[in-house]
Recover the amino acids of this structure.
């Protein structure tokens, strides 16, 4: 009995964030009226999320020169190979709004927190995961608008300059805040809790602002299927890199997570420029499936 309780507790702890994300999604559908008070806080919340990703990092944790070739490989796959391949599938299976959601999700940088956490739990090279994640984040103002424009082509108007400006503000603001606020005055547990709360508010506000009646259960299933397919494709690419480059498991693990996991906060911020509820639905569904799949893959792959 005690072992069963311990097992259930372990499962709940591992999937705690996924449960919270689903709760925020349901709240946005059931009680959307409070979102009007939170819409103006979206950009500050994403700035705060960037801050939580970089605060407390020491120079010793970032080693660009040592990992240069691996950084290039990860960024190339994350910003080019997976987005291009993924959109071939998304455009074939999904409607325009849902496909646009995947275009946004695939064009944003690595989600720093999750990539580092899952790498640590998998006993991979945390320093490599940290380095790639930070470089991906810092390059987002340059890469994300370009990649998004290429993915959607002439089908959808991409507000490149507003997105570029927004990314410069949130990335620069988050880094500046991390410089100004000494890490010793902010407890790590408080930072983690604050980041989780910010993500939940972003999800609630994004879902509440969409017209939920404009999508069906079949569309949700199609989005989930595409998301699983993209993660499977990413896993295959990761295994190919491991074997082709003769990488050890310690190195392959952070490549797997940094190439496949994407930043939810930045994706939702960009999604505000589009009215279709399917855009937000695709991004959040993909994020939830990313996190569940990462938990299942931890210590079981590569």
């Amino acid at each position: 009995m005690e072992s069963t309780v311990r097992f259930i507790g372990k499962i709940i702890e591992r999937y705690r964030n996924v449960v919270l994300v689903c709760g925020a999604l349901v709240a946005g559908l059931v009680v959307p009226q409070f979102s009007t008070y939170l819409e103006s806080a979206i950009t500050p919340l994403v700035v705060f999320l960037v801050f939580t990703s970089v605060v407390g990092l020491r120079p010793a944790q970032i080693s660009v020169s040592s990992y240069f070739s691996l950084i290039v490989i990860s960024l190339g796959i994350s910003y080019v190979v997976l987005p291009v391949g993924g959109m071939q599938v998304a455009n074939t299976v999904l409607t325009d709004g849902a496909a646009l959601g995947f275009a946004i999700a695939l064009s944003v940088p690595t989600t720093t927190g999750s990539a580092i956490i899952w790498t640590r739990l998998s006993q991979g090279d945390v320093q490599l995961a940290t380095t790639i994640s930070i470089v991906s984040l810092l390059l987002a103002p340059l890469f994300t608008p370009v990649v998004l424009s290429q993915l959607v082509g002439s089908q959808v108007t991409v507000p490149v300059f507003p997105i570029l400006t927004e990314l410069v503000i949130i990335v620069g603001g988050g880094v500046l805040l991390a410089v100004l606020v000494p890490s010793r005055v902010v407890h790590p547990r408080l930072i983690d809790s604050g980041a989780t709360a910010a993500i939940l508010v972003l999800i609630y506000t994004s879902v509440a602002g969409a017209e939920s009646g404009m999508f069906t259960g079949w569309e949700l299933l199609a989005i989930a299927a595409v998301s699983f397919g993209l993660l499977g494709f990413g896993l295959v690419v990761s295994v190919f890199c491991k074997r082709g480059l003769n990488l050890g498991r310690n190195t392959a693990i952070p490549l797997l997570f940094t190439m496949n996991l994407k930043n939810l906060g930045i994706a939702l911020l960009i999604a505000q420029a589009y009215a279709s509820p399917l855009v937000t639905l695709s991004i959040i569904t993909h994020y939830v499936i990313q996190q569940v799949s990462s938990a299942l893959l931890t210590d079981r792959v590569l």
Observations:
- Residues 207 and 228 are 21 Å apart (CA to CA).
- The radius of gyration is 18 Å.
